[in-house]
Each structure stands twice: as structure tokens, then as C-alpha cells.
Amino acid sequence: MADEIMKSLYRIVVPLPNSPLKDLNSYVIKGEDRNLIIDTGFNRSVCYEAMKKGLDELDIDLDRTDFMLTHMHADHTGLVLRLASESSKIYFSRIDARVFDKDISWQPLIDFAELNGFPAGELQKAIASHPGLKYSPHEIPVFTLVDDGDVIECGSYRLRCVATPGHTKGHICLYEEVKKIFFSGDHILFDITPHIESWAYDTNSLADYIASLDKIYDLPVNLVLPGHRNFQGSLKKRIDELKIHHRERADEVLKVLGSETLNAYAIAARMTWDIDCETWEDFPIAQRWFATGEAIAHLRYLEGEGRITRDATEKIVTFCATS
Ligand SMILES: [Zn+2]
After folding, report:
1. Which of 235, 122, 240 is nearest to 181 (CA)?
2. If you placed Cys at 198, which of 151, 162, 255, 296 could pair as Cys (CB 3.0 to 4.6 Å)?
3. How many angstroms separate the alpha carbon of residue 259 from the centre of ligand 1?
């Protein structure tokens, strides 16, 4: 079903079964000549059917429609090739486009997870059940690459790309300056917190994320349209809350660490998670994967602040509080 947000702007809610995110917001702008669809859902039939139904209701001609994908995750990019026509432009971040490189492999991720204490025997299973592998586009799309500051026009909408690294390295939000609308992708969410993970020690995703929150803090915005769930809230207030959340999470990691020396997987196991499982061992493997990535992001952040020290001399990387 499609709901009207304002003149020529609609939202289609695309279900994401078995995902804690519940659904994805796909935004549709109807222009005079061409339309624009912002984010698409997973590459699976249940998402395709919801999109098709919404687009039919809105009488969208896919031969006159372009796409903008806020970041590389499969719940945003997955369906694009099933919806795009030959004339469709697919706007996408130059930085996130690198993960679609045909030479990219999951092996460095697997090695890095093992280095951080993820049980070696479970790694292949974790990758196999990763939605990024299962529900991505089956081919590499031909992208029209965009960078910070580029403008995408559709009808009376003039959307400025705002690079907001953190949730992914190349995450892009869209800002409509005159209408004061901010399409926030997964950079700002309201009833859940965006997932921030690190899968390499040379990236400090959480520091990047906080800098990207500060970057947009003063934008005049009346309406924030996030990639998931609801949109009833002020941008500034939400940014303040998200910064407090990560501060508290980092403090929790310090508390878990105490005076011990632990690896990231063991730290993730002792952190609190908003998931319906009695024990860490009961977590579905994909959730243990995401939790470990989030723990690493906070560990890397604390290390950057000089509050903890990383020891990479052994087979498994460990952390301890800086004395
Ligand atoms: Zn995402």
C-alpha cells in the first residue's frame, strides 16, 4: 500500500520478513517527465510484490523511473534490477559502489571475524545466512555514481546528496532545501537505533557516524524520512538521543571489560541486546554476527579515545582498559 506524504511524494512500506527492522520505507516522487524511487527492499518475492502493488496504485511507469539507493545494504538495493527499466538511472554512492566490485570477496571479513574470536566453525554458516549475500541484486547494477553535494532533480524536488559515513562508509542522505525534507536512509531512525559496525580496524565507523550526525545537526529540516519505521520526530532531538545512546553503549563496553582482557566476540556475548533470547548461544547466528560487528565498532571507538588498548600480538585480538 502506498501512502501520500505530501504533493507528489509517497511511501511504500515493504515488508522484511525475519528482520528485526520489520519493513523498509521506499519513497516515490512522481515527476512530470520522470519519477524517482528512493530505496527498494530485498531481492525476494515478498518485497517485489509489495513494491509492485504500491507502484501500480500510484500508476508509476517504470519506463520513466529512476532510482536512488541511500547505501549498499540489501534491504535498500536488493530489488533495484527487478524494477529498473533500460532507461532507468540508478544513482548510488561512489564509495559504497566499491562493495559491488566483481572481485570483492567475503574472505577478509571471515578472517577478521576469526581474529576477533568468532568461532571458526560457525563462520561459513554466518556468511551463508547473511542477508547481504542472500538478498542482493543478482548482477552488478550499472550505477550513476554520486558524491557529497551532487544534486538529483525530480519534478519540483531538488535533492542534494549529503555524504554521511558511519552506518556504511558511503551512506548518502538527501536534502530538499526549499521543502526542508531530509531523506535520512539508515543514518537517522526513530524507533530503533541505526546499526553501526566495524569489520576492519582501520575504520572507526562510530567516530565517522558521530561526525556525520554533527554534520547535519544544523540543517533546517521540518520532516525527516527514514529508511525504516516511523517518521514523527525532530532531527536535532533524535541526534542528541543517538549520541547519548552510543556514549552509554561505549560505557557499557568499558564496564563489561572491567579489569579483564577479552576479545570482541566475548565482549559482545556479555553486552545487553534487545533480542528475545535467553542466552547468547540462543542468538541466531546472523544476530551474533551483527552484535560482534557492533561491539568492534565501539571497541575501535574507545581505542581511538585512548580509553582501551588493543593487543594484536596473539592469534586472537584482545582488549583491556588503558591503565
Ligand atoms: Zn542499512
Report:
1. 235
2. 296
3. 34
Q: What are phi and psi of 272, to 5 degrees?
A: -90, 140
Please give the Cα distance from 219 to 204 (Å, whole number).
24
Distance CA(295)–CA(280), nearest Å, equals 14
Would the pLDDT of 129 be above 90?
no
Query: Which single residue is written with the C-alpha cell 533480542?
Result: 275
Please tell me the distance from the alpha carbon of residue 68 to that of residue 172, in angstroms, as a whole number: 10
Q: Report which of 164, 189, 320 is spatially closest to residue 257, judged by C-alpha positions.
A: 320
Q: How far is the CA of 85 from the centre of ligand 1 (A)?
A: 24
Give the distance (Å) from ligand 1 centre to CA of residue 167: 7
Tens digits of residue pLDDT in 166-216: 999 999 999 999 999 999 999 999 999 999 999 999 999 999 999 999 999
Per DSSP, the three-state class of 37 is: strand
Q: Which 8-state DSSP code applies to residue 54?
A: H
Residue 294: per-residue pLDDT: 96
| Residue 230 Cα to ligand 1 middle (Å) | 16
Task: Say how many CA atoms lie within 13 Å of 275 toward its Cβ.
Answer: 22
Q: With 90 as the cut, is the pLDDT of residue 239 above it?
A: yes
Task: Dig out the grid coordinates for 273 from the structure.
Answer: 541486546
The pTM for the full model equals 0.95
Q: Give the chain's domains with CATH numbers.
A: 2-135+142-321 (3.60.15.10)
Average pLDDT, the chain: 95
Q: Is the pLDDT of residue 103 over 80?
A: no
